[in-house]
Structures are given as structure tokens and as C-alpha cells.
Amino acid sequence: MVDHVESAQPTVHRPSTVSEVAALVRAAAQEAVPLTVVSGGHGPWSHASARGLRLELGELSSIEVDGTAVRIGGGAVWGDVATALAAHGLALSSGDTASVGVGGLTLGGGIGWMVRAWGLAVDQLVGAQVVTASGDVVEVSATQHPDLFWALRGGGGNFGIVTRFDFEAHRLPGIALAESVVEGDATAVLRAARELLRDAPRELTVTYMDVPPMDPSAPAGARLTAVWAGPDPEALRVELAPITALDGVTTEITEPAYRDILMEMPQPEGGEAPAPPGFLGGNGLVADLDDETIDRLVAYRREYPASVVFLRSLGGAFGDVPQEETAFPARSATWFVMAGAFDVPGLLDEQGREKAAADAQRIVEGRLAEYSNFVDRERPDAVSGMYGRDGYARLRAVKAQWDPQNVFRRNHNILV
Fold first, then answer.
1. Which of 47, 241, 343, 346 is the most exposed, having the fewest neighbouring CB atoms within 10 Å of its CB?
2. Measured CA distances, 149 to 125, 143, 163, 205 (Å)
């Protein structure tokens, strides 16, 4: 039985074994108790307080390395994974932040610093252990339940609870990192970055971020960050020359450990952090970073002082994977783009909020798909746009087979 009461607060369970997870899922399904699953990190569901059963996987956080084969518990976080793998000269392409959960990031696809060198997190996944909606424990791979394995690679937490991820890691003797502070008009920098990444070696991945002083997760202002997948700062310096030579760009190149480039989320003193302001924005996987998109991004950041714009280069290994091989959409995209304004009390009135949201959506209106890992709330009407027509239809068929009662619905929910 699942102990629960009819209240607005969830009953929290922190299982330490896979059998406990299976028992809790069976009980929740039999009693029709709403189920929220949290892997190990932060995200839109990490602090959810919906009623029902809240299942936190943080106790399932083991990391086992055998050669280049890596088995990771469903409750691990990427900072711990990077630390463990570094001792073996290995790495996996993960997210940008140490506290991000392996489970949430991977099931949504996983765009990270090595996306052009090694692809998505799901492109390194070779198997998984899954607790299904019926409470069964199954092993999945390209040859075992291949339909479920396909859906897990980008379809989110719709199909079961992954208690173990099996990855094939990469040798990484070191990296080079370039941090370029951008002052003044960023238009020329973004256009130069676009041209550079059209034919750049896949060892190179770049991001561009411009944030206000109020954002605690990143330094204020505009900066372009470049990571080279290898200990070769001179190669990175040569590749970035078209950008670093521009007026208003100041660049520093270093050779940090891979773990050290993962951001640390600020920890509040004396208790929980206050709820962050709402975010009025949108994101998209885009075929090309054209001049109009660049102009809109620069104008948006200028018009809304409490706003953020973020871009990451794609292509390379990301684009090598055939579209039908994983549930992740838009393999032909060359950039990920996000823009939005923070809904700071007193800064925007209702009309201003509507305009900020509409202007952000206009920036990504030509997107190939929306990236689910950067959508911070449930939006049932938008889920199909996270996968494309064919992908969504296939995901619905897998959902009907593995979770026809929609036990796993606290996510970007795929409906049968």
C-alpha cells in the first residue's frame, strides 16, 4: 500500500533499491495515486508539490566504470559522473550544470558541451534498466525491447522509470576553453560565429549567452564560450580568430578539467531559495541562424533589461545520427536558440508580459522543433511540437504499449 492523504502536498519516498521502486509503482498504479518522479537534479519537477506520490531517485546514484562502459544509477547527477570518469581519462557529453540529473537530461535528449564532438547524451546510451508502469523490471537496448529503447532516447519520462543508464564513454585527455567577453553590439560576433560553425571541426562547440545581473547562474553580460574536445589550446585559438579579432571581444583561453566547466547552481544561505521569477520565453532547434534571427535576438536583449538570450552550436556528431534512430527531433538543426524575459514583479505590466512572450516566440517561430529540456512547465498543447509529426505518432504507439493507463504523466505528457 502507498501511504497518502488527500492534500495538496505529496507523500515523498526515497527508494534505495530497484525492487522498492517497482513496488511503489505497482501500488501507485493500483490505487490510481498521481505519481511524480524526480531523478537526481534540478528542473521543473524537482520542486513540484503536486499531491500524490513523489518518488525521488537520489539514493540510486552509483557510478560503475569498466573500460569505456559506464553504468550510472538513475538518481546520479552529472557533476559526480564527470568527477568519477575523469579518474579513468573518460567523459560523457552531459549538460552544462553539475547538479543536473543524469535521468532528466538524458531522457530529454541531452545537449551539452560535447554535442558536436560526440552527439547528445542519448547518442552515447547503449542500454537501460527500466521499471515499467506494471512494476516489471526490464532491460532495454537496441536488441532488447528496441521500441522502448528508441522512445527513451528523447521521449522523456513517459514510458517508465530508468533506474540505471548504460553509456559508452569517450577518451578525453583534456580540453581547451575560451571565454570571450563581448562588449557593445553583439551582431557582428553572432554572425561571425555562425559562419565559423558552418565548417568548423567537430571538436569545437560554442555557446553564446547574454544575461542580466539578476541571473545568479551566470556572469552578467554577454559572452561567447568555446570548448575544444582535446588538450589543444592553440587549435582553439586558431579556429576562433575570426571572432576574437572583432572589436569589443576580449578572450582568455585556458585548459581546465572537464568537470570544472560544469556550472554550480548557487546555494541559498539559511534555507530554501525563493521561487524564481516567471520566465516569458521560448526556445527552438533551428535549421540556420539567419540574419533576421540574430537581429531579433540582439534587439530583444536590448528592449528587455531583465531578459536572457542563449545559443548553442549543433551539427557535427549531432547531425550524423539518422532522424529515425532516436526520438529526439530535428537532427538537421545547426543551432539551439532560446530567448525570454524574467517576469520580475513591478517591471512588466500585463501588456508588457504579453509583448515579451510574443517577441520571444517570434524569434523561434521558424524552428524545426522545441527542445523539451528547456520547457519549464507542463504545456499539453505543445508536446507534439517537441517531436514532430512522425516522431510523435511513433511515441504514442510506444506509450500505448508500455503505459496505456498513463501512470507516468507528470512530464511533457504523450497521450495515447
1. 346
2. 9, 9, 14, 27
Distance CA 157, CA 161 (A): 7
Distances (CA, A) of 89 to 63, 93, 120, 174: 15, 14, 20, 8
3-state secondary structure of 393: helix
> C-alpha dihedral over 105, 110, 111, 116, to 10 degrees?
150
Distance CA 28, CA 6 (A): 14
Distance of CA 83 to the CA centre of its chain: 19
CA 33/CA 216 separation, integer angstroms:
36
Q: Is 205 exposed, middle or buried (0-12, 13-18, 19+ CB in 10 A)?
A: buried
What fold is seen in the domain 176-265+273-369? Vanillyl-alcohol Oxidase; Chain A, domain 3 (3.40.462)
Kindly calculate the radius of gyration of the chain based on its CA atoms and give it in whole angstroms: 21
Per-residue pLDDT of the chain (416 residues; tens, 9 = 90+): 455 444 567 899 999 999 999 999 999 999 999 999 998 765 554 445 567 999 999 999 999 999 999 999 999 999 999 999 999 999 999 989 999 999 999 999 999 999 999 999 999 999 999 999 999 999 999 999 999 999 999 999 999 999 999 999 999 999 999 999 999 899 999 999 999 999 999 999 999 999 998 766 678 899 999 999 999 999 999 999 999 999 999 999 999 999 999 988 765 555 555 556 789 999 999 999 999 999 999 999 999 999 999 999 999 999 999 999 999 999 999 999 999 999 988 899 999 999 999 999 999 999 999 999 999 888 999 999 999 999 999 999 999 999 999 999 999 999 98
CATH topology of domain 63-171: 3.30.465
Q: What would the grid cell of residue 59 be?
A: 539514493
Give strand pairing partners of 97: 263
> Is residue 338 a contact partner of residue 370, using CB atoms and an 8 Å limit?
no
Domain ranges of the chain: 10-56, 63-171, 176-265+273-369
Q: What does the block give as the cell for 280?
A: 516569458
- CA atoms of 271 and 283, how far apart (whole Å): 32
How far does Cα 85 stand from its chain's mean position? 20
Cell of 240: 576562433
